Amino acid sequence: MRHKNSGRKFDRNTSSRRAMFRNLTANLVLNERIETTDAKAKELRRVAERLITKARRLGEVSYTPQEKLSEKDKARRLAVKRLIGSFLPRFGTRTEVGGKETKKVDLVEKLMVDLAKRFATREGGYTRIVKIGQRRGDNAPLSIIELVPTGDAAEAKAEAPAAE
Predict the structure, then answer these.
(1) Given strand 33-37, what is the order of strands in its sheet?
(2) Among 17, 48, 99, 126, which is most buried by a count of CB atoms within 10 Å?
(3) Which residues neighbour 56 within 8 Å (Cβ) at sequence distance 6 or greater?
(4) What residues pair up with 143 in beta bridges, in sequence order?
């Protein structure tokens, strides 16, 4: 029996499972949308939302420029950055639209500044899982997990089709 044992094992040992979720979370923060299996997406949601919540709980300290912070706020921000950095890799590379250039992105800064600011008023539910069918090779159920757009982006998308 698996009483009080939460989470799926994915037939992997602890270090391999942790590495898989580190990489999946890094890709989700970097690209804001990834395609994976249903089970991995459901477990990834737990990991990603906890990291976003850690950054969001700082409030404005998370995205205020370093020079404008008090010593106490600098210490709080540094502690959260180290906590997030202990799980996420520091940098990720994204291939730009043309496919010729790669851009190096600081994942911890993106999480602390961009995502914390975007989800500042949201109490939870930062991700969305959309089921997209079966994988061709092994018939595994596939899903897209993405970060939910904020009110501004959602309103812009809602107004665009109405204008046509």
Answers:
(1) 33-37, 141-147, 127-134
(2) 48
(3) 62, 115, 116, 119, 120, 122
(4) 36, 131
121 DSSP assignment: T
Structure pTM? Answer: 0.86
Query: Residues in the chain, how many?
Result: 164
**What pLDDT digit, counting tens, does each position of 73-116 carry?**
999 999 999 999 999 999 999 888 887 889 999 999 999 999 99
34 DSSP β-pair partners: 145
How big is the chain by its Cα radius of gyration, in Å?
Answer: 18
Q: Which residues have C-beta within 8 Å of that of residue 9, sequence separation ≥ 6?
A: 17
Cα-based distances in Å from 114 to 108, 109, 124: 10, 8, 16
The single-letter DSSP state of residue 149 is: P
Task: Report the distance separating Cα 10 and Cα 120, nearest Å.
Answer: 33
